[in-house]
Amino acid sequence: MKKERTLVIIKPDGIQRGLVGELIHRIERTGLKLIAAKFSLGTKEQGNEHYKKDEIWLQAKGELRIKQRTEAGKPIEKTAREYGMDIVRGNVSFITCGPIVPMIWEGNKAVGIVKKIVGGTEPLTSDVGTIRGDLTIDSYDLSNEDDRCVRNLIHCTDDPKESEREIAIWFKPEEIINYQYIGERMLYDVDLNGILE
């Protein structure tokens, strides 16, 4: 558990709004250890692999999009699956439209800790105190109206099982640094016998 890893990506809107330091700071002060980071441009291949979704997801999201379009009085011009694929294409287009900061954080329950700090996918309904709840105002309604993905500053892995798959998309093994982090002693040393001289 002490070595659980999670992928975090500061998206192009986080970069353009000058929030890189703030976003890293919010995660860093939990005690998680940063073991990889870079400033880069994502490729379409990376984006497509990152947002690879199964047929059940595509169908469910597409059906939701059809429902939203119906309620808004917009025409239904595609199948549910095609609308689901539009969501994927929009996410890929956004994450590759400008610089990003992919990172790997490590520590006890890293996936859950980061997800709690980041907040829900939709900024409008994210809790106060979360990154998305505090630092952006986008919503599903607005993104659907504009036929684009939600701009929510940051990506975090949703599930520990997905973590290794996502990490492999954005980092080579040699880019991940294993090192001793002094903060880990305070968090994980059972008897703290090394504090006093």
Question: What do these coordinates show?
Answer:
The chain is of the alpha+beta class and 197 residues long. Strands 1, 2, 3, 4 and 5 form a five-stranded antiparallel β-sheet that branches. The longest helix is centred in the first third of the chain and has 17 residues, at 55-71. Helix 3 (44-50) packs across helix 5 and helix 4 (55-71) crosses helix 5. The mean pLDDT is 94. Helices cover 47% and strands 12% of the residues. The protein contains ten helices and five strands, in the order βααββαααβαααβαα.
* N-to-C order of helices and strands: EHHEEHHHEHHHEHH
Q: Helix count?
A: 10
Taking all residues together, what is the mean pLDDT?
Answer: 94
**Between the first and last Cα atoms, what is the distance in angstroms?**
29 Å
- Computed CA radius of gyration, to the nearest angstrom: 19 Å
Q: In this structure, how is the largest beta sheet organized?
A: 5 strands, antiparallel
Structural class: alpha+beta
- Beta-strand residue fraction: 5-15%
Shape by Cα distribution: elongated
The proportion of residues forming helix, as a percent range, comes to 40-55%
Quick one: how many beta strands?
5
Instruction: Please give the oligomerization state of what you see.
Output: single chain
Low-confidence stretches: none
